[in-house]
Amino acid sequence: MKFELFIAKRLQLYNNDDSNKSSSVTLNFALIGIVLAIVIMIASISIIAGFKSTIIDKIANIQPHIEIKSGNYDENNHPCDSISKKAPFTRLDNPNIEQVSLTGESVCILKTKTDFNGLVFKGITNDYSTQFLEQNLVDGKIDTNSNNIIISEKIANKLNLKVGERINVFFIVDQLIKQRKLTIGGIYNTHFEDFDNHYIIGNLSTIQSINPWSKNTGSAIEIKCKDFEMIDSVKASVVDNIYQHIYETGSTDIYQIRTVTETNSTYFAWLELLDTNIVVILVLMILVSCFSLIAGLLIIVLNRINMIGILKSLGATNKSIRMIFIYMIQKLILKAMLLGNIIGFSLILIQKYFHVIELSADKYYMNYVPIEINSGLIYLNIGILIISLLALIGPSYIVTSINPARTSKFE
């Protein structure tokens, strides 16, 4: 065992002498400061990660990961609003693609006897994934077969609608008004205002009948990826497939391809700002921890001036004495990290499973503070330990200014 570590293990961090009670109080305040900083950092990382994950998950389930629309123009030089699910979209064999679906959208008006509301009707097929809507179902069931539709709780409350009611839906196509009488099969609430306030979900056949379009025609082809992080890679693969198809067949079709991050660039730019916030919080809390540690180190050194003088008189080097005090303050660091992690993880686990702190879903897109526990918390603890030890190197040089001849007379 090293000489410095041997001495440090046998020295008490706190001096029980009544004359040094103020020093013990100072050390306790330093400990509390470090513990609070660690708790705040753990909570901040978990909350920000949970918030980002929840928002991205909602956007990724509401909006298609990759959306393909027609870029062609008709004989009147008007943009073509329909696309057919044909080659090359029937042979997309990328292993990261989970689903390829044909969908259709059209502006519509829901009208009751006393009120009306302008919305977007989104038509889907039977193979379209409705798992997210099922998770956010409030009443009824997810059934878009035949003339059934699914509306949001906000729209249902506004128009005073219930599951099972039949409602008139008006579509405007080529300056003509077309009416469909549809049945409300389910009511959902995603707490995502931009979606809940504007969309109703129904069968694609309704959109096809009002245009009219063939069975394999819709407004867009939506691609869902198995991994959100692979969206750009899948998009590149789809583009390659399209170019290959055009090259092989001589097709003159034009397509517009956009990813969910491009369609919702404002949301993702906002989420990136949260990373800046967490960096600011971490820097401030690390500074608080470092100042607390430095104060603790100085207190320990000042309480043991006589010991430093004796060690120097016996031939101990300044480096050895510095290491003794760094080893001693490590006890404070480890104790603070242990307490900080116990308190921090206890608080975030309580919030994660019991949702103690609630939020306004209209403002935050969720009704409670979300928590995500990830590997960042491990790196946080490693970083705290390394930065804390590095912060002690400079202040530890104070022992070099202590003269053995003077300290032998100091009481």
Task: Write a structural description.
The structure is a single chain. The longest helix has 42 residues. Strands 1, 3, 4, 5, 6, 7, 8, 9, 11 and 12 form a 10-stranded mixed β-sheet that branches. This protein has a two-stranded antiparallel ribbon with strand order 2-10. The protein is elongated. The protein is built from 14 helices and 12 strands. Strand 7 and strand 8 form a beta hairpin.
Brief characterization of the structure:
The protein is of the alpha+beta class and 411 residues long. It has helices spanning 3-10, 21-62, 131-135, 153-159, 193-196, 204-210, 231-249, 260-263, 265-303, 305-313, 318-354, 361-364, 376-393, 404-407; strands spanning 66-70, 83-84, 97-111, 116-124, 137-140, 148-152, 166-173, 176-188, 199-203, 217-218, 220-225, 255-259.
